[in-house]
């Protein structure tokens, strides 16, 4: 089958600033989008675009949208670098034209790259129809599929072509499928059909399933029936660029939320294991010294686990907020397109903001609702452990205080008794030659007399001291 004036449009986006990205230190030649543009043009047309040398990434922003082409490169208010070359196809040299437009949108870089078979030759005559297989020449080695590096957000690949006659109406789906196969000859790189509809009166097919997020690629094939779709595309291509940017931000946030989801799930399991491994009370609800040490160690570990878990939940909430914001921007952009093209049927584009994005938000909200129980579980565990530790420690402190008081009383009793005994012993010693207790035969030895008085005094005054401590209790 044949098509007329096929185009391939690449809308690609990359973060230029973020929490861990210093945009002022980034060099133009190291930015993935500009490198990718050079690679595509070199691979397809065997030309050196040198896009990074033609732009100024440090242009001061006067609005969220900044054209990055150097002023010296701008001609007739055209902020894109024109491209022209030839491709060998069917033993002919076919002219290819296009452009590369570098921009900065909000917190990201954007690249709009177009390669096309022109509708007219240089002399003004219409170009000939080409076989659908020609599209494979525009994407050799799958060069239009960019590598997913660290700051890369995503891309939309839009293929447009004119239907060649009324007969094509009966086989539009087949034409779209053959276009897809020509662009992606390798079946493993070919995204599956998601849905089809109409945009500006012409059939459009969307490829890429959100159920396959790990390998998700957004591809659109738009087959023009008449001039209306082509003209409307020219009128609002800048708005479509913004629209695809907001869409990419939503999809990327949802992709990242799925990665965080697995991290939160692992942390939740870690919380459950930590709680299950808490020391259990022994018989008679006793907590041993070893158990108390383990509880204190857990009391140090669980708050750290709680902090990690809270941060993961916060990241999940951040992705949800990003989706909400960019869905709103997407809808607002659709309103702008409606203002440019009166009475335009944008249902095909509205499906994303009306169906897909709300579904992403509901999924994240459900995740948050489930995993927030983990925070409550941790708080309860920490509070429970802290209560057990405080009670056990208080009981042990009371027992120790009682032992200390008992020892203090004992020392007091013994001290008073010994002191009194020593005093009495000293007094008796002075009168040792006059023994009080006399035997029938002879008096007791002075040492025995002294010892007896000392023991008697010690016991007497010790008893008095013990009675006094009992009275204080």
Sequence stretches where pLDDT stays below 50 over 5 or more residues: none
Multimerization state: single chain
Distance between the first and last residues' Cα: 108 Å
Total number of strands: 10
Shape: elongated
Radius of gyration: 43 Å
Question: What's the number of domains?
Answer: 3
Task: Report the sheet with the most strands, covering strand number, pairing sense and barrel closure.
Answer: 10 strands, mixed
Look at the helices and sheets and give the structural class.
Answer: alpha+beta
Give helix % range. 40-55%
Strand content: 15-25%
Taking all residues together, what is the mean pLDDT?
A: 83
- The H/E string reads EHEEEEEHEHEEEHHHHH
Please count the helical segments: 8
Descriptive notes:
The structure is a single chain. The protein has 473 residues and is α+β, with helices and mostly antiparallel strands. It folds into three domains: 2-235, no CATH class; 251-400, Up-down Bundle (Glutathione S-transferase Yfyf (Class Pi), Chain A, domain 2), CATH 1.20.1050; 401-472, no CATH class. The chain has helices spanning 32-45, 135-138, 172-183, 227-235, 237-276, 289-340, 347-430, 446-472, and strands at 2-15, 65-67, 81-89, 92-105, 108-116, 130-131, 152-162, 193-199, 202-207, 218-224. Strands 1, 2, 3, 4, 5, 6, 7, 8, 9 and 10 form a ten-stranded mixed sheet that branches. A hairpin with a 2-residue loop joins strand 8 (193-199) and strand 9 (202-207). Helix 6 runs antiparallel to helix 7. The longest helix has 84 residues, at 347-430. The termini are far apart. The model has no long low-confidence stretch (mean pLDDT 83).
């Amino acid at each position: 089958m044949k098509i007329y004036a096929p185009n391939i449009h690449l809308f690609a986006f990359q973060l230029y600033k973020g929490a861990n990205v210093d945009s002022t230190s980034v060099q133009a030649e190291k930015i993935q989008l500009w490198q990718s543009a050079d690679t595509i043009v070199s691979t397809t047309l065997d030309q050196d675009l040198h896009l990074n040398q033609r732009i100024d990434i440090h242009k001061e922003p006067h609005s969220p949208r900044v054209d990055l082409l150097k002023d010296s490169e701008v001609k007739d208010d055209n902020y894109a670098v024109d491209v022209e070359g030839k491709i060998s196809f069917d033993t002919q040299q076919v002219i290819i034209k296009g452009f590369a437009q570098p921009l900065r949108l909000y917190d990201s870089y954007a690249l709009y790259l177009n390669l096309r078979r022109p509708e007219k030759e240089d002399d003004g005559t219409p170009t000939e129809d080409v076989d659908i297989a020609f599209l494979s020449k525009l994407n050799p080695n799958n060069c239009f599929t960019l590598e997913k590096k660290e700051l890369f957000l995503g891309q939309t690949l839009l293929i447009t072509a004119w239907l060649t006659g009324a007969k094509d109406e009966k086989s539009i789906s087949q034409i779209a499928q053959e276009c897809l196969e020509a662009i992606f000859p390798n079946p493993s790189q070919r995204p599956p059909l998601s849905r089809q509809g109409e945009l500006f009166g012409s059939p459009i097919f969307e490829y890429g399933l959100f159920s396959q997020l790990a390998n998700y690629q957004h591809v659109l094939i738009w087959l023009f029936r008449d001039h209306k779709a082509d003209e409307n595309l020219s009128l609002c291509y800048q708005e479509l660029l913004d629209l695809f940017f907001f869409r990419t931000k939503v999809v990327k946030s949802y992709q990242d939320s799925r990665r965080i989801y697995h991290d939160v799930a692992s942390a939740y399991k870690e919380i459950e294991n930590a709680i299950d491994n808490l020391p259990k009370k022994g018989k008679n609800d006793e907590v041993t010294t070893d158990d108390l040490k383990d509880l204190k160690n857990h009391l140090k570990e669980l708050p750290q686990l709680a902090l990690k878990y809270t941060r993961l939940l916060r990241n999940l909430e951040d992705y949800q907020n990003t989706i909400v914001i960019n869905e709103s921007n997407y809808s607002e952009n659709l309103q702008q397109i409606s203002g440019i093209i009166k009475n335009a049927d944008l249902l095909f584009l509205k499906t994303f903001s009306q169906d897909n994005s709300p579904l992403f938000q509901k999924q994240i909200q459900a995740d948050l609702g489930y995993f927030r129980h983990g925070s409550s579980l941790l708080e309860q565990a920490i509070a429970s452990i802290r209560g057990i530790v405080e009670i056990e420690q208080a009981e042990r402190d009371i027992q120790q205080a009682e032992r200390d008081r008992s020892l203090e009383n004992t020392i007091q009793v013994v001290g008073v008794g010994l002191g009194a005994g020593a005093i009495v012993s000293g007094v008796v010693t002075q009168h040792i030659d006059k023994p009080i207790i006399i035997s029938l035969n002879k008096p007791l030895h002075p040492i025995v007399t002294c010892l007896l008085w000392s023991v008697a005094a010690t016991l007497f005054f010790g008893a008095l001291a013990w009675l006094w401590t009992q009275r204080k209790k």
